[in-house]
């Protein structure tokens, strides 16, 4: 489904990713682990198409298409979803209005009919209760006044509504206490499906105790330095990033 | 281009022709008041960018020719047309001025709050001299004093409770080319009373007409006035209104302006604190596109201690539109414990749009809390990317963020009907889903 080949990415004139190779198949969950500054978020943003993240070499093939040639919204229509590490607050835009617009734009992009207000509310309420969210939050402007955990749950809510083919979770565990982490992980696990792939980007192993990956890639200094099964994450937890000869200022 | 002296002479001739017909003409004191105002206008002339206060705004067509008073219009407009301009306010009490003259047949006074009295300035009420005050005025205010034919004199009696908003509608007729209105309002809120007044301005798109409005508001001890202005003149219209507010001890004045019409608009508001413990909020949004020029100029005089003023203006400018925000806060030496804040934010949606902002603090007291800030920029790229990453096309994402920028201001409007009216007008401008009244007048 996703094939990243020799990907070099430059941000502000500086190369951050130096030739990444990564293949992700339908139904699989892969973890990308790495210390701060290793290029994890750059990888997430370049998959979602953020401006200023320039591919200088290599390619990203998603369902046979050149992802890099597509605008962020086209990627969303094609089924790419990025759960942000730092979800953006948007004062003045009501959460419900945003969710409805996003869902209907993605549905249009997939060639499906738009949902009317009643259908949308019914679907939204189902998903909100699955994630144990307070529905009143969605009447507020997007993410404004939300706690860290509420913001992350809101990201997972968006993912569950938009039903992407490929979900990229960028440090979804950061800033969460253990209860919030469990709820978010349950939300993610409930979305695992044979038709969907996930790329879980994280610094720490703890999220991977809840979202068990099929494969783990270790990213350091803008390169994949090791790959393995889920046991690699445990080994990393025990020995630290030093086992790959890198220092991690946050560890 | 005409010489400045030709223009002032043309207005002097106009005054000579009209003076016998102006309200209060028979009263020598009032006649002298008008003559004095005309003389002050003649000395100063139509303001030009050579004046510091007018540095960023050139009055264009007003510098080329004198605008004539419009003849009374007796027909051509009905209640329905006016209702359609402001559906959310349609049921409430209202006054309608067409080309600066009251149209009694279009007014609706049955819903007037108890304790609110409304008179026509054209009927020369007893307090005409107060309405025509010309102290510390600029040239256009003086011209308005000299030539004012009509306006509203609104008096809210002591301890009157807040009632429905009074809507004052100003319309220009389709044949208004070259015509001016010098409407003049006096609003008096007596001690302990509360009232809401909404002023709206509409006009035809095809005519270059001029609205030179003036409004004097006096808010008594512990009284409150909420004052809303919606400026949606026709596309070629010229609009200049000046509001002057005097606040007694403990009084509150809340103002919100939505300025989006006309080829050229300049809305001035000037607040003077005359008693301690009073407060004002001055909020506004200006929305410009095409080659519109929209100028918001404010002045707050803290002349006494313990008063509070908060000012927030936001602008959205597209195409080649030009915006101006000038805000002066002056704190006199004796005005200790003043709390005064001013904030201006402008979104420029095009490379050719521009804004001039001039926030000024003149503080002579030493124990005060004052601040000002001004930002100008494009939409937040992080928010734009977030929305697009959720599937919203760029144009829709941008429109949503522009509307949000405006909504944040509009949602702070207190009275439900006014908030609905302004939200619909602003949303129609930004192309949002909840668009209500059509832009432009139908008078």
Instruction: Tell me the span between the first and last alpha carbons of chain A.
Output: 33 Å
The total strand number of chain B stands at: 21
| CATH topology value of chain A | Rossmann fold
Give me the number of helical elements of chain B. Answer: 8
Whole-number total of structural domains of chain B: 1
Structural class determined from secondary elements of chain B: alpha/beta
CATH superfamily of chain A: P-loop containing nucleotide triphosphate hydrolases
Account of the protein in words:
The complex is a heterodimer of chains A (251) and B (443). Chain A is an alpha/beta fold. Chain A has a single domain (2-244), classed as Rossmann fold (3-Layer(aba) Sandwich). Chain A contains eight helices and twelve strands. Chain A has helices at 40-48, 72-78, 95-109, 117-130, 148-162, 178-190, 206-210, 231-239; strands at residues 2-11, 14-24, 29-33, 53-62, 65-66, 80-83, 90-94, 141-142, 166-170, 197-202, 215-220, 223-228. A six-stranded mixed β-sheet of chain A has the order 6-9-10-3-11-12, with helices on both faces. A four-stranded antiparallel β-sheet of chain A has the order 2-1-4-5. Chain A has a two-stranded antiparallel ribbon with strand order 7-8. In chain A, strand 9 (166-170), helix 6 (178-190) and strand 10 form a beta-alpha-beta unit. In chain A, helix 2 crosses helix 3 (95-109) and helix 5 runs parallel beside helix 6. The mean pLDDT of chain A is 92. Chain B is of the alpha/beta class. Chain B has one domain (71-419). Chain B is 21% helix and 36% strand. Chain B has eight helices and 21 strands. Chain B has helices spanning 4-18, 28-44, 79-85, 128-131, 139-147, 381-389, 394-410, 416-430, and strands spanning 68-69, 94-98, 101-102, 116-120, 152-156, 166-171, 179-181, 184-189, 194-202, 210-219, 224-232, 238-247, 252-259, 264-273, 279-288, 293-302, 308-317, 322-331, 339-348, 354-363, 369-377. In chain B, strands 1, 4, 5, 7, 8, 10, 12, 14, 16, 18 and 20 form an eleven-stranded mixed β-sheet that branches. In chain B, strands 3-2-6-9-11-13-15-17-19-21 form a ten-stranded mixed β-sheet, covered by helices on one side. In chain B, helix 6 (381-389) crosses helix 7 (394-410). The longest helix of chain B has 17 residues, at 28-44. The chains are: A alpha/beta (251), B alpha/beta (443). The A-B interface holds A 48-51, 71-73, 75-77, 81-82, 84, 87-88, 90-93, 98, 101-103, 105-106, 109, 141, 158, 162 and B 380-383, 385-394, 396-397, 400-401, 403-408, 411.
């Amino acid at each position: 489904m996703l094939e990243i080949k020799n990907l070099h990415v430059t941000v502000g004139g500086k190369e951050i990713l130096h030739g990444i190779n990564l293949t992700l198949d339908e139904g699989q969950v892969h973890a990308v682990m790495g210390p701060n500054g290793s290029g994890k978020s750059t990888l997430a943003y370049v998959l979602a198409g953020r401006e200023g993240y320039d591919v200088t070499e290599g390619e990203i093939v998603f369902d046979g298409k050149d992802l890099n040639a597509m605008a962020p919204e086209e990627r969303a229509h094609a089924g790419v979803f990025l759960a942000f590490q730092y979800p953006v607050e948007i004062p003045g835009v009501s959460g419900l209005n945003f969710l409805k617009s996003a869902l209907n734009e993605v549905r249009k992009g997939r060639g499906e009919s738009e949902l009317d207000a009643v259908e949308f509310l019914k679907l939204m309420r189902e998903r909100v209760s699955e994630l144990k969210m307070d529905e009143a939050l969605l009447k507020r402007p997007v993410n404004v006044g939300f706690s860290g955990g509420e913001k992350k749950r809101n990201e997972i809510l968006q993912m569950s509504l938009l039903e992407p083919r490929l979900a990229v979770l960028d440090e979804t565990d950061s800033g969460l206490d253990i209860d919030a982490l469990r709820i978010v992980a349950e939300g993610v696990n409930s979305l695992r499906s044979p038709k969907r792939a996930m790329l879980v980007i994280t610094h720490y192993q703890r999220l991977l105790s809840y979202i068990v990956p099929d494969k783990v890639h270790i990213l350091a200094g803008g390169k994949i330095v090791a790959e393995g099964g889920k046991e690699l994450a445990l080994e990393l937890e025990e020995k630290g990033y030093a086992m790959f000869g890198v220092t991690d200022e946050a560890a | 281009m005409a010489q400045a002296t030709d223009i002032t002479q043309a207005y002097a001739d106009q005054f000579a022709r009209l003076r016998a017909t102006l309200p209060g003409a028979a009263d020598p004191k009032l006649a002298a008041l008008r003559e004095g105002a005309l003389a002050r206008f003649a000395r100063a002339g139509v303001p030009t960018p050579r004046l510091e206060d007018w540095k960023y705004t050139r009055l264009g067509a007003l510098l080329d020719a004198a605008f004539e008073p419009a003849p009374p219009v007796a027909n051509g407009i009905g209640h329905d047309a006016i209702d359609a301009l402001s559906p959310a306010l349609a049921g409430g009490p209202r006054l309608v001025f067409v080309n600066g003259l009251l149209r009694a047949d279009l007014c609706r006074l049955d819903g007037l709050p108890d304790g609110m009295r409304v008179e026509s300035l054209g009927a020369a009420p007893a307090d005409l001299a107060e309405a025509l005050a010309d102290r510390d005025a600029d040239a256009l205010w003086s011209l308005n004093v000299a030539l004012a034919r009509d306006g509203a004199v609104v008096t809210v009696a002591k301890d009157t409770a807040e009632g429905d908003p009074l809507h004052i509608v100003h319309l220009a007729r389709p044949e208004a080319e070259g015509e001016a209105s010098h409407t003049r309002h006096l609003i008096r809120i007596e001690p302990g009373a509360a009232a809401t007044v909404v002023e709206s301005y509409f006009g035809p798109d095809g005519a270059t007409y001029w609205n030179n409005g003036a409004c004097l508001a006096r808010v008594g001890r512990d009284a409150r006035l909420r004052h809303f202005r919606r400026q949606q003149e026709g596309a070629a219209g010229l609009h200049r209104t000046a509001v002057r507010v005097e606040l007694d001890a403990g009084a509150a004045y809340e103002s919100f302006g939505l300025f989006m019409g006309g080829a050229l608009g300049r809305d001035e508001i000037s607040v003077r604190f005359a008693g301690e413990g009073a407060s004002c909020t001055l909020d506004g949004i200006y929305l410009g596109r095409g080659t519109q020029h929209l100028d918001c100029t404010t002045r707050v005089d803290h002349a006494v201690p313990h008063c509070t003023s908060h000012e927030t203006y936001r602008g959205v400018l597209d195409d080649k539109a030009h915006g101006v925000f000038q805000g002066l806060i002056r704190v006199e030496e004796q005005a200790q414990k003043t709390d005064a804040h001013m904030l201006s934010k402008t979104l420029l949606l095009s490379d050719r749009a521009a804004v001039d902002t001039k926030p000024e603090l003149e503080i002579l007291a030493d124990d005060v809390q004052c601040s000002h800030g001004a930002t100008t920029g494009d939409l937040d790229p992080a928010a734009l990317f977030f929305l697009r990453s959720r599937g919203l096309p760029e144009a829709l994402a941008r429109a949503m963020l522009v509307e949000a920028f405006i909504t944040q201001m509009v949602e702070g409007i207190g009275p439900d009907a006014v908030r609905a009216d302004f939200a619909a007008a602003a949303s129609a401008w930004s192309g949002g889903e909840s668009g209500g009244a059509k832009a432009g007048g139908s008078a």
